[in-house]
Amino acid sequence: MQQADATEKVIIGVDPGTQVMGYGVISVKGQEISLVQYGVIHLSKYTTHELKLKKIFERISQLIEDYLPDEMAIEDPFYGKNPQSMLKLGRAQGVAMAAALARNIPIVEYSPKKVKQSVTGSGSASKEQVAYMLEKILKMELSKEFMDATDGIAIAICHQYHANSPAAVASGSSKKSKKGGWGAFVTENPGRIK
Question: Which of 5, 21, 118, 136 could form a disulfide with 41 if both were Cys (CB 3.0 to 4.6 A apart)?
C-alpha cells in the first residue's frame, strides 16, 4: 500500500433545500469509504427565507467545525418551472458554499443525474434505489427517517468516485496533494485547534 492511500480524506456532501437540507460526511482511507455522520436540517419551521439561510450557514459551519472536511461536494439546483423556487434554492446552495469557502474548503458541484448515475448506474434512479445502493456501498443500514440525508451521502460518494477516476487523476483535477485549505491548516497547526 502506498503512503498516499493510507491518508484519510473527509468529504461533506450537501443536498441544498429550502424546506429540508440533507448532508452526509464520509471518510475515505485508501479505497475504504465509511460514513461518519448524516442527517437533515429542517427549515420549514423558520418563518422567513432569511432565517432559513442563517440556519443553513450556522449548521453547515458547525458541521465543518465538527468534522473538518477536506472537500465539499454539493448538488446543483436542477432547473424547475418556478423561477422563485429556483432563486431560493440557489441562495440556499450559495449560503452552504459560503460556509465552506470561509474555511478555504474546495467545492465541487454535481447534477442530480450525475450523482444518481455514479451511485446506482442510472441517472433516473429513485430515492429508494439510491438509499439501497448506499447501504451496499457502506455495508450498513441507513435510517429511513433520514431519507433526505441519503442524497447528501450520495453526493459525497459521487465526488469520491469522480475525484479519483483515471480521467480526473490524468487531468490533474484530483486533490490528493492540495496545498492550503482548512485540512492543511489543521495538519500544520495542531496546537491551534481546540
Answer: 21
Nearest Cα residue to 10 out of 27, 29, 24: 27
pLDDT digits (tens, 9 = 90+) for 58-110: 999 999 999 999 999 999 877 667 888 888 999 999 999 999 999 999 999 99
User: Which residues are CB-neighbours of 194 under 8 A, at least 6 positions away?
Assistant: none
Domain with 64, as residue range(s), is: 3-192
Catalytic choice (32, 75, 76, 141): 75
Instruction: Count up the domains in the chain and report the number.
Output: 1
- Catalytic one of 15, 70, 71, 151: 15
All three cell numbers of 95, joined, read 449560503
| pTM of the full structure | 0.81
Known catalytic membership, residue 75: yes
Kindly report the CATH number assigned to the domain that includes residue 53: 3.30.420.10
